[in-house]
Amino acid sequence: MTDFRFRELALNLASTNTASSTTVEKAGFIARFVQAYRKFHDKRPYTTQVIQAFFVSAIGDAISQNLFSEDDYSFARTLKVMSIGGFLSMPTHTWFMFMSRNINHRIAIVSLLMKVTANQTCFAPFFISTFVTIGSLSRGVSDPEELLGIIKERVPVAWMNGCMFWPNIVILNFTLIPPYFRGLVNSCASIVWQTYLSWLTFSSKKAVNEATVRELELERRVQHLDICLHMLVKSIAINAQKLFFRGS
Of 68, 121, 122, which is closest to residue 91 (Cα–Cα)? Predict the structure, then answer.
């Protein structure tokens, strides 16, 4: 009986050591990857951003085509999106480094708000309009009036949606993320954004208009729900106050 318990204890210790060593190996691999990424980024920051942008653009467009496009998957379209993403990755990195060095305040929250405001008012319109313009040209839109109409129709919508999405990423980047990982975090968030931009740029006018109508309807319902919840909370507070005074 004693031998059996000893063997069981030995097996438990062995399995625990194996799990621990596996965890250590995984942590060591992550640490080595982080170190290698940081070294490569320090030596070639723009090359790193372009490579990241290629992967992000390819993944985002693949998701966009598979989820939202009725046509067969087009690798040519993905290559177009990758080219646009790679091109825009360089000014994006430059802009984030500029904000990190020049848009600062001694009060952290003020500095953060300044960065968010600057990003959404200065850089976001440039990025979105450039992406939509190059994307539209790449899919055969050559008439200046038609191109201008697409920009007027889609860029403001994308900018408003970006105002609900990107401030959270900027806040995360400048509060918790080291400078050399900001591009990587930005790239991960960009997969979601790239999926949206690819759909917005390469979809038909009818599809975009229908989606805009659904979005406005959803916003209306959310606002209605918010009003109902506010009235419910207010009613509960009034009734609770009446009960309190009646009991006293």
Answer: 122
Of 58, 123, 130, 37, nearest in space to 87 by CA: 130
Mutual angle of helices 179-202 and 144-175, in 10-degree steps: 150
Q: What would the two tokens of residue 188 be? A: 């991960």
Retrieve residue 92's tokens. Answer: 């994006």
What's the rounded Cα separation, in Å, for the pair 122 and 114?
11
pTM score, two decimals? Answer: 0.69
**Alpha carbon distance 73, 59 (integer Å):** 13
What CA–CA distances, in Å, run from 231 to 116, 243, 245?
Answer: 33, 18, 21
pLDDT tens per residue across span 129-172: 999 999 999 988 889 999 999 999 899 989 988 888 888 887 88
pLDDT at 129: 94
Q: Which residue has the tokens 């200046």?
A: 144
What size, in residues, is the chain?
Answer: 248
* 3-state SS, residue 248: coil
In whole angstroms, what is the distance from residue 113 CA to residue 234 CA?
Answer: 32
* CA distances in angstroms from 47 to 34, 53, 83, 139, 206, listed in the order given: 17, 10, 14, 27, 38
Question: What distance in Å separates the CA atoms of residue 5 and residue 243, rounded to the nearest whole number?
Answer: 64
DSSP state of 122: I
% helix / strand / coil in the chain, to the nearest 5?
Answer: 90, 0, 10
